[in-house]
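Why do we care about 3D structure at all? Because function follows from shape, and shape follows, mostly, from sequence. That is the central idea of this module. The next example makes it concrete: a single protein chain, its amino acid sequence, and then its structure expressed as tokens.
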Amino acid sequence: MLPDGKMYPLVTRHSNKSGLKTLPVVIIGNGPSGICLSYLLSGYTPYFKRHSLHPHPILQRKLEEAPEVSVLDQDLEYLSEGLEGRSQSPVALLFDTLQRPDTDFGGTAESVLTWWHEPDRAIPHLVLGRNAPGGAWHSIEGSMITLSRGEWMGLPDLPFKEWLKQKRRGLRNNRATAEDIAQYYQHYVMKKGLQKNFRCGTVVTSVRKVSAESIPNHTQKDLQDDSGSLWNSNEKSTEVFQVDGFFKTMEGDKEPFSIYAENVVLATGTYDNPTWLGVKGENLSYVHHQLSALEEAVKNNSVGIMSDPVLIVGAGLTAADAILFAHHCNIPVIHVFRRRVTDPGLIFNQLPKMMYPEYHKVHQMMKEQTAACAGPYERYISLPEHHVLSFGKDKKCIFQDKNGCQKAYKISMALVLTGSNPNLSFLPNDGIDLAVDSEKPVNPKRNPIDVDPFTYECTQEKGLYALGPLAGDNFVRFVQGGALAVASSLLKKANKNPP
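And the structure:
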């Protein structure tokens, strides 16, 4: 956690007669999305680097039309028109290709952006997060290797590879460990001087719109000296957001807070709320929903080479990480998943073998080591096209295959690793009203929050924005485009665009 002395208090009382000082922006979540947006709102401004050449000729021509105008102040819809890539978001593709012009083709072309710090364009804001800057990356086992290439994990104007070189480290298969990334994000906040905007150890419990006239007559301490700020604080909003929560002190106490903001940005990610199967016995003490439970069990010697098998449910990358971890520790595993091994929707069938040798190994195990067919891998059994029916108090688990046949296995512990959902309990109706399908819960892949693709403002609630997985952007390299869109929108609201 960053030293508390470097954080601004959330709310302070003054004898100031001017009444409440409402913050222009509060960002909930301090992972890569929140950090990147804080950078852009702190006056760091991207321009097209003169004499640089982008491999996309139409984009190059557009960038040359107004090189003296910041990318933030240009028409993002116009710039991003016609771009294609691995994201559905046009602005995500735009910002990614400006920073890494030919990375999808294995190239190493330099960014065509140059960054200028223009403090007079900063918008006062606060970033609230449960952990240190980096968000959920601090909750992931440090030795885990990322799915994305290491250079794709970097944030603007501080390449991840350069930071890693300073630590005298290299990338393994062009990829990085979770520990490296968590440290990099903390370093980024300090290096760019953003720490004054961050308040770590905070839990938000409620966000709701209130009438500006109903706010108590006290002031909030300015985040920054606003005398040089371009935010037009003379504009009176009839409604503002009230953000309630508590701050966890070093002593373990909870100090409540209320802050008011004209705009709120949701950047909480999806790591909080693991998906449950909804079967009998799933709440028993030996059934877990996070990989960290297996790491803890190994540390405590409660599972080992002589244990009953560990059950791993799921066929995604977290399940694969659990299998690799168990395999490394010689712990027997039963692996249950619903899909066929050859299903094209299975993530392993979409990953290049050369870049992801360890995941390719798991895929081989899944194919070659089924209960019906013994293979070369000891202490591992694959049960494709099976699902869990129940967990028993005697640690017996019952599975059923696609034909309705049932099997029972005695296990030592179970890990249900079938994905996670965002925890939006602090929003009215858990945020469901904001989703693309407002009848179903928000889900990063199937039902994200419905946002304008060029501002990331929620279509159902003006002044509320959503970033990252909440808006359907699930990779660090692409969440940054959302931050660009939000910053551009807020600058336009603030009338801070140059003529």
